Amino acid sequence: MLKRIHLPATDLEVSGICYGGGGFGTACRGEDLDRRINLFREAGGNFLDTAHCYGVWAPGGDGASERAIGSYLRRFGKKDLVVGTKGGHPSTPGYRKTDAWLSPGRLGADIDDSLARLDVDAIDLYWLHRDDTRLTPGGIIETLNAEVRRGRIRFLGASNWRTARIAAANAYAAAHGLRGFVASQPQWSLACRNVSPDEAADTTGKAMVFLAGDDLRWHEQTKLPVIPYSSNAGGYLATGGQRAKAGFDNPTSRARLERCGRLAAELGATAGQVALAWLLHQSFPVIPIIGALDPEHLRQDLGAADVPLTAEQVRWLAQGDGGGPA
């Protein structure tokens, strides 16, 4: 059974694993989707994650994920569910064209759409899907807090933001009595992501952010919660490295995957469960986002919450050198 975690600086109590809606309304819909969400809820899950742009890659899928969640809420009730959605995504093939994705007008239009699709009066946790480094962190915080005062969004999150920008935004919020970011949503898993030259050179805020290096150390120091997507490396860790090779296959990932398999065999778990458990046993709050639509895969992912790891095993999975299986 998933435990509940209080998100600091909020009144939100969320499950220790979040269910991501990337495939809601497109890859899975109707009664099939109802069963998946209900399975998640029966395991103690109450935290759903979606985005304004989810589904745009499928024919007729614009807004499909948010609409699917809205349909579910109307029929089953929101009750204790916490729904987070993201807005402020740059232009991408098939998606709306804009050069100012975090402008007040653009964010306001995204929130209009999300409220209508989800059929809610206010969004529990509103994430900015990307940063825009042309804008000041303080200006962005002012835009979001104007929406908080309107009662349209409640708490704020930063997805794919560098921690220096999150820190500056939160310092501005604290100095002006405003709401800051209560959590970060980067890409993160036990695997090590292959970063393309274009992503590495990006200074605009458009690129995905993989949590590593100074950003990871900042979270360890500040304890700001992380709610990572691609928490099983796009299936790389759960399939023995057979999926998502282009994104994650490299010597570091292969070594970590091998250690995952060894520890999984000792614990009577799967490698994917051990990889998710590694996230759950960090020194700061981590709530991994899972997106499995196959019922058995979903059950396996949820079972990661029952995999015990010692601090030494957590260290060994990432670094090796002693502390592994007997």
Which key phrases capture this entry?
326 residues; alpha/beta; TIM Barrel; two-stranded antiparallel sheet; 12 helices
What does this structure look like?
By secondary structure, this protein is of the alpha/beta class. It has one domain (4-251, 270-309): Alpha-Beta Barrel (TIM Barrel), CATH 3.20.20.100. Helices cover 40% and strands 12% of the residues. The chain contains twelve helices and nine strands. The chain has helices spanning 30-42, 64-76, 104-118, 137-149, 163-175, 197-201, 213-222, 245-248, 251-267, 271-280, 295-302, 311-319, and strands at residues 4-6, 13-15, 18-20, 47-49, 82-87, 123-128, 153-159, 181-185, 289-290. The protein has a seven-stranded parallel β-sheet, covered by helices on one side. Helix 5 (163-175) links the parallel strand 7 (153-159) and strand 8. The two termini are 28 Å apart.
